[in-house]
Amino acid sequence: MRKTLLALCTLAVSAGAGAHSASDAYLNIVSDKSPSAAAAASSAATVLHGQWDIALRDLEFVLKLNDRGDGELTWGEVRRHQAEIEKYAYAHLHIAGVSGGACSIEPTRQMIDEHADGAYAALFFDVKCERSPGGFALNYDLFFSIDPSHRGILVMRSGNEVATALLSPQNAGITLNP
Amino acid sequence: MLAFACLMLSCMAGAAADAAAGAAAVGAAFKAPYIPAGDSDVLQEVPSVTDPAVASMQGLRAQFTAQPQGLPAAIELANAYVDYSRQIGDAHFAGYAEAIIAPWMAKPLPPPGALLTQATILQYRHQFDDARVLLNKALGEDARNAQGWLTLATLDMVQGNYQAARKDCAQVTNTAGFDLGLACSGNLLSYTGQASRSLDLLGHAAGAGDKVPASYQAWIQGLMAESAERLGDWPQAESHYLNALKLLPRDNFLLVAYADFLLDRGRAKQVLRLLRDHTQSDTAFLRLALAQSALRSPEAVRYTWIMAARFEALRQRGSDYFGREEARFALQLQHDPRTALDMARRNWQVQRAPWDARVLLEAAKAANQPRAATEALEFLQQTGLEDPIVDPLAQELRSQMQSHGK
After folding, report:
1. What confidence score (pLDDT) does residue B86 get?
2. SS3 of residue B28 by DSSP
3. At CA B333, angle to CA B331 and CA B336, rounded to 5?
4. Is B95 an 8 Å CB contact of chain A?
């Protein structure tokens, strides 16, 4: 008991070394105003382009990317796990047309993006809709079940307009009106 | 300062609306997304199983997964996560800890153990008021909980409630025994102008024997370093820092406190060496930026820019407030005393450790607004803090106020 307590005491007393980077992901969406998109009434057309930056540190925690276990995550390791990363990420992002038309997220490619707190997997995607969707209902629940303090920082651009939202367990579903 | 140096960075009094409004840029990415040149390019440092703390967390995780309904295993794992967050200066693991105990926190009457762990997480994030509510709830259920009393003592000390902290320390003695009570009281005395006696008490607490864990000994050594600093006894302070770091060489919170000591002594080059492998931690990174600036290195601009981007990322996620650290950043690296003063004043409403007073006084002086420090000056007078760096600053501001008043 005593030993446990002494171990805990340091935790209690120095518990605060904080406000170090917590878990963030950056979701950037641009609406496609090209003529082909406008003509989306007839067949499925791309209406949004997205870039989703997810910290490699977070992906390591859930997917164990560092195969060698040496603490140095390489491009080779990330590359070998890209399919898994894609599957995991897109299971936690849903975009639907408000007016009922079916939309789908189609991954295009993965790259690496550097942020101030480390390297991120940059997942690029297009959103295609069968008919003009009006607006979009976006649902985001990346990492919330393993880290309720995770935040998705959404920036939506449409022409000259920029809208932002902070996605959290309390604010996981939002409507976009490009 | 050491005990609470850890508390300094995450002064997050969330303002999500501001954060979102300010988030015009894409999370401050540095360059266009790219494909690395080769498979062997290292992109990111991640926790390694060769680190005993990581291996131990994996063991605890396996134990928890085998029996996910068991509260003791959940708490043990969550506490290990929080401790790891603190050690490496990375808040991700505090979030993982929160998820582990969430099912118990969702109950109508969460068990005291879960309340305590959640309070520790909130305290780590500087959500002090919320942490206090949970601690009081936990101690209401279980008044013999030593960890609860010690956590409350910490909270009261960081917020400058020294009378309350005295009572909390008495409860620590009652519930955990003499040595831990001495450590608690010894810590407190360094804030009330009795650093010499503080060192005596901590010395006794350190003598508790070899059977105690290294983390306990390192904690006491860190507190002793802080008390010696308060006496202006630099060689003694340094030897305690080195003792502590011998026990826990990678502890972010000790490294940062020692780095501050070195910066104050004009030994910036040593800071660069000390923190070379700790750039992931924001608190460590700020000290690296300060050291680069002190050395007038060409790297200083880059470090300042990255630090600004990290603060911006925190704001974007709704952690608008980084009080003490951001005030220091604004004052010393952005040379913006007005902003620094504004941040330091808001920070003072949340936490009142000697470093918080120092940052506020320095900013008030630089902004030539001595009256902005009135509240802090009164607090220092009431509590009797003695500190070779804070005292002359306070004196200078008081005499400036008098001459302004004439």
Report:
1. 87
2. coil
3. 40
4. yes
